[in-house]
Amino acid sequence: MKLDSSRSLLIRLFALAVLVLVTPLSILSLRALGEFEQGMVPELDKKAAAIGRDVAGQVSRALGYGIPVDRLVGVDEFFSPMLEANPEIRYLAITDPVGRVKFINGVDRDELEPHYRSADMNAVGADGVKSSIGAYMDLALPLTAGQTVAGHVHVGFDQNHIATRLSDILADVAVVIVSSLIIAFEILLFVVFVNVTGPLKLLRDLVNRAGHGDFTHVPTSGSDDEVGRFLRAVQGTLRQLDGRYRQLMAYVDEVRSGHFDKGVVAKVGDVADRINFLYRFSPSGKPEPMVERRATDIRLALFLFVFAEELSRSFMPLFAGRLASSVPNVPIDLVMALPIALFMAAIAIASPLAGQLAERVGPRRLFLIGAVPATIGSLMTAASFGMFDLILWRTLTGFGYAMATMACQSYISHAVKSDRRAQGLGVYVAAVLTAGIGGNALGGVIADRIGLRPTFVVSAILVVLAAMLVSRLLSSADPAPGEDQPRPPGGRHLLRLLRNWRFTVLMVFAAVPAKMALTGYLFFLVPVTLSQQGWEVAEIARIMVLYPLVMVAVSPLAARLADGLGWRAGQVAVGGLIGGVGLLAPLLLGGGPLSIVVSITALGVSHGMSASPQLALLPDLCWTECRRLGNTRVLGFSRFVERLGSVAGPILAALFIPLWGMSGAVAGLGVVVLSMAVVFAIASAAYGSGPHIETEEDPA
Amino acid sequence: MKRRHLIAGLAGLGIGAANPVLAQPRPRSGEKPFRIYMALFRGWEDCAQGFKDYFVNQGIPVELIVRDAGQDKSKLAGFVAEAKEMKVDLVFTWGTTVTQEMLGPWDKPDPARHITDIPAVFAIVSQPVGAKVVPDLVSSRRNVTGTTYLVPLETQMALIQSYRPFSVLGMVYNPLEPASRITIDELTALGRQLDFRLEAVPVDVADGKPQPTSIPAKVAEVKAAGALFLYIPPDTFINVNRDVLTGAALEAGLPSFAAAENPVVNSKAMFGAVCRYYPVGQLTAYKAEQILVQKRAPADIPIDAPKRMAIMINMPVVRALGFYPPMNLLGLSEVIDPESRP
Amino acid sequence: MAWSLSRKVSVALLGILLSTMVMTGAFGYYKFQSVLSDQVNSRYSFVVFTIKRKIEDRLALGLALRALRQIQELAELEKARDSQILGIQIYDSNREVLFDTDRGTIGSRVPSTWLEPLSAQGTQPFSLTDEDSALVGLPLVNTLGKVEGAVVLRYPATYLEQELGRLLQRLAGEFAVVLLGSAVLSVIAASWLLRDVRQRLVAMENTLNQSVTKGAPAKPGRDAFEGDFVRFCGKAREAVEQIGEASDEVERLDRLA
Q1: Which one, of C135, C118, C148, lies nearest residue C56 by Cα?
Q2: Parallel, antiparallel, or unpaired: how do β-strands A280-281 and A214-215 relate?
Q3: Is the interface score ipTM higher than 0.90?
Q4: pLDDT by residue (tens digit) across A409-443?
Q5: Residue in C59, C94, C112 closest to B14 by CB
Q6: CATH homologous superfamily of B153-274+309-336
Q7: Do A77 and B326 touch (CB under 8 A)?
Q8: Which fold would CATH assign to domain A294-486?
C-alpha cells in the first residue's frame, strides 16, 4: 500500500462501505418487505370475502329461483367484469356440492378440480373456508338454494399479488443503495484525500525537496488525527532545523558586524556561504507553509452540484407539461421541451463568460456566485406556477450551472499544472458521470415518493451544501486574481475557426447531432414517451440511467481502442452512426420500452465511443488555431457550438411529435442524427493524413 | 355559494314531496322560477312525480301549477284558457287525450282552442305520430316536444338477444290491426340489421273478427318454423287474449317476450320489458330543461323514450320451460315469482 | 476528543448509512402505505359498488331514489358484515341524506364539498375525508345519465395508522439494532483497515526522531515514499550536523580573536 496514493486505501474503505451499507439495508429491506406482505394479507382476505359474498349472493338468488347450479346461464359474462375490475382476483368458480367445477373464469379447471374434489366442502360455513392451492389463495363460500347447500363459489387470489405490488419498493431500495454507494464513494474519496493522501502527497513533495536540502517549506496540518500528528512531527523537526539555521545566521551576522578581524569575518562568511550552498532555507525569516491545489479538492462540491441538477432529469419535461395549461396557442410538446432547451441555451451563453469571469474573480468566488442563481432557480422552480416563470427559473438555474461548472473546470485546470492534465479532466468527468447516475436515479425515486416540487427543494439544499463545502475548503487555496494571463484574442478570432472545414465538419456533423440526440431524445422524448405509457417517474429514471452506465462501461474500452488504433475520426464516425441507427429502433420494435432501452443503450455506446476521441481530435484538426488561440479557447468554442445542438434537440423533437407521434418523433430525430453521422463519416474519410501535432500543453 | 343555498332551499321543500300539490319551490330572489302548467288526466302519479323530482334534483327553480282533469275531457278547454291567461313558461300534458285536446294536431292547430305560443312537452302518449301530435319523432315542427313510453323495438330486440341469441323470431298477430303491420315492417328491417328472420303468422279471421281459438295452432306453426322466441306486441287483441297466447307458447315450449306488463305479470309470458312512468316523467322534465334553461327550440328536440327499461321475468314460466336467464340479466330484472324463496 | 482517521471514516460511513436507511425506510413506508390504502380503498369501493349497482338497477326499474326503502336494509347489512365500516350513507344531489346506517342523520345535509366529486360524473370511486373518518363513494346515475346522488362508505381514517403503527414499532426496533451493529462493525473495521497507515506513520515518526535527534541510522524504507522519507531524515540529520559544525566553527573563529 502506498501512503500517498488514495487508491488502495480507497478500495479497502469502499469495500467496507459496501459491507456496512448493503448488508444492513438488505437485511432490513427484506425484513420490512416480509412484514409489509404480512400486513397486506388480512386486507386481501377481506376483499376476497366481500367479492365472494357478492357473487354468492347473486348466484344464490338465481338458485333460489329454482335454477339448477349446473344450468346457470351467462356466468362468463357475469364473472369477467369482476375479474377485470379486480386484478388481484385470478379466478372465480362455481362448484357443485361434490366439488365438480361447473363454471370457472380466469384459470384452467384442471388446476383446481382435484383440490375441490378431495376437500371436504361440507365443512364450509357461512364465512367460507380459506385454502392455499398452488399459487392461489382460494376462498370458498357456500351457495344456498333455500335451506340446502347447492354448491360453492370460489374466489381465487394471487398469492404473489402483494409481492408484485410491493416489488417497486425493492427497486427503490436498490436505486437508493446504489446512489448511496456512489455518494459514499465520493465522500470517502473526499475524506481520504483531505485527511490522508492529500497531506501525504504534499509531504512527499516536501520531503523530496528537503531530501535535496531545500528546507524552505513546512507541512501544514490543522487536524489532530494520526496524519496530523505525524505532519506536526515533521513540521517540528523542520522548524527546529530552521531555528538552528536562524541561530547560526544570527551568530554569523553578529560576528560579521561586530568582529574587528576581517579574516575572521571572511571565514565566517565562508561558513555561512557553505551552509547556504548546501541547504536552502526560507528567505522570509521563517519556513513557509506548503500549500497546493489539487483537482480532487473540488470534486465533492462539483459532484454535489451536478447531482442536484440531475435530480430533476427524469421528470423535467413532465413537470413542464403539468404547468403547460397556462400557455394558450403553443403546442404542448413545445412547451414541455422549452425549459430543457432554454436551460441548455443559458449554459451555452453563460459558459464562455463564466470562463472569463473565473480568471478575474477566481474559481472559489465564481462557484459561490453561481450557487446563488442555481439555488434561487431551483427553489423558484419548485414554486413555479406557470410556463413563463418556469422558463425564467430554469434559465437562471442554467446560468448558475454554467458558472459553477466553469469554476470547477478552471480550478482543476489550474490545479493540475503540476499534475497530469488527463487526470484532472478525469476528475471532472468522473464526478459529472457518477452524479449523473446517482442523481437521476435517486431523483426519480424522490419525485415519486414525495412529489416533483419538493425534489427541486432537495436540489436547492444540495447546491447550498456544495457552496458551503467550496467556501470552507477552498478558502485558503484560492489564487490571487488576475494572474499573469495573457488576454486571449476575442470572439471574432474564434469564428475564424469555422473556416477550418475539418473543424466545422466535426462540430456540425458529429458534435452537434450527438448533443441533439442526448437532449432531444434522452432528456425530452424518453421521459415523455414513458410517462405516456404509464410508467412512474422512478421507473423512467431507472431506464434513463442506462445511458451513463453504458457510457461508463464503453468509454475505457473506446479510449484503449483509440490509443491502439489511432483512428479517432473513424471512431467518432462509427459512434455517430450507432447513435443514429439506435434512434430508429421504434421503427422496428414499436414504441414500447424495449425499443427505448435499445435506443438508450445505443446512445450510451455511441457517446462512450466518440466523446473522448472527438475531444482529442480537436488539437489534431486545428493545431494552428490551437497554437494561436490556446487549446482552452478552442475547446471552449467547440463546447459552445455543440451546446447549440443541445438547445436544438428538444425543440426539434417537440416539433416532430405533432407530425409523426411519439415513436415517429424518435425515428425522425434518428433520421436527422443518422444522416448527419453519414455526412461526417464520408467527410472524415477525406480528413486524410492532414497536419498532425502532438497535443500541446495548454498555454493559458 | 348562491346556488347551494338554492339547492338547500329546494330540497327542504322536497321532503314534503308526498303531497305534490304543495310542492311549489319558493322563488329565488332576483331570479323568477319557471312556471310550468301541468295538465293531468288521472291524478298525480309516477310520471308527474318523476317530472317534478327532476327539477328538484337538478336545482332548477320551478313553480308547478298542477291541474287534474280527473278523466273529464270537458275540463281541458278551461285548462287551455287558464294556461294562456297565466302566461306560463311551459305546458306539460299527460296522456294522449290531454295532449290531443290541448295541443291540437301538428298540421293545423287552432290558436283559439289550442296552446300554440307557449312551448309544451307531452308525456305518456303511446303513438305521438298516430295521434297526429307530431309528424315524426325527429321533430314536431312546432313549439312542442315530448316523450313516448314504449320501449323502442331495437332495444327490445337487444334485450331478447341478451337472454339468448336467436336467428328466428316468431310473432302471432291480428291482421286487422294496422299497428301490427307497422311492427312487422319495422321488425323485418331490424332483422336485416341484427341478423334474424321474422316469422309472423296472422290469426284466422272469420266474420271480420280475429279468432282467438286459432291462436294455439298459429303458435305451433311459429315454433315449427324454428322460432326461438315468440314476440308479443302491445296490441289490444293480444292483450285481451294474452292467457290463450302465452299459454299456447308455454305449451309449445316457446319462450315468449312481451312489450307490455300484463302478459308477464298477470299471465304466462316468460319475460318482458316496459318503461316505467317515473323515468318517463324524468325524461320529459329533461326536455323541459332543454327548452327553459338551455333555450333550445322544442322543434329541435326529438321525441323518444327512456333508454333503460324495467325488465320483468316470470320465473314459474322460466322453470317450466327450463330456459334460464343469464346471470347479468337476472340481476337487472324484477323477478315475478309467487313461490319466491330468497 | 481527538478525531482519529478511523473515527472520521466511521462517522462518514454511518452518516451515509443513517441517511440511506431513513430514505429507504421513508420511501418504502410511503409505498407500502399507498399500496395498503389502495387495497383498503378498493375493498370498500367494491362494497360501495355493489350498493350502487343495486340502487341503479332499481332506479332503472323506474323508482325514485328516495322511494327505495330496501336500500336502508341493504346498507345496514353491509355495515354489519364489516366491523371497520363506520357507516354507509346515501345522499341525493341536494345534499340531503336519504338513507344512513345511522338512522338519526337521515334528512340532514352532507357538506357541500361532497357534491363536488359528483360533477365529474366519472365511474371511478372518489375519496373524501371528514374529521377523523375517510370516505369512499360512487355517484348514483339514473337512466338519463344524470347524477341523482351518491353512496359513500365511511371508515376510520386512522385505520391504516393503527395497522401500521405496530408494524413500524417493530421495524424501528430492528432498525436501531442493525444501525448499532453497523456502527460497531464500521468502527472496528475502519480502525483495522487504517491500522497499516497508522503503524507506518508511527514508524516513520520514530525514524524521524531517532535519526534526527539521536543520530541513529535510518532503516531503509519499504517503498518509494518511505525511501524518500528516509533520505529526508538523513538529509535533515546531516543538516543538523552541518549547522552544528558550522556553529562550532563560527564560535571557534569568534573566540579566536
Answers
A1: C148
A2: parallel
A3: no
A4: 888 777 765 445 556 677 777 788 888 888 888 88
A5: C94
A6: Response regulator (3.40.50.2300)
A7: yes
A8: Growth Hormone; Chain: A; (1.20.1250)
